[in-house]
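Category: protein sequence paired with discrete backbone structure
Discipline: computational structural biology
Format: plain text, a pair of labelled lines
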Amino acid sequence: MWFMARNYWSKQVTEHSNALDLERDVFNEDDPRAIALSLKRSADRSKRRKGSPYRSAMSMLTFYINRAGKNLPKKRLKILEAAKDELRAAYGR
């Protein structure tokens, strides 16, 4: 049935991004610093990204937040927004 097997393009981007090889379940962490450092490691290691490591990491985090939209619980949004601040600090910005 067509409605049972939905394939969302955003899931494909998150799982198979050509810019970053994300660590498993990175966005499910409860520690904003752990999320930021994981994204930083992924961005720093990537040889396929087009922009700077900082920009790639921040873009992936923002993409995840935006695609979750209204379905993202307030607690999770707060953690991910804090991860942005941690990511800025990790890159000295």
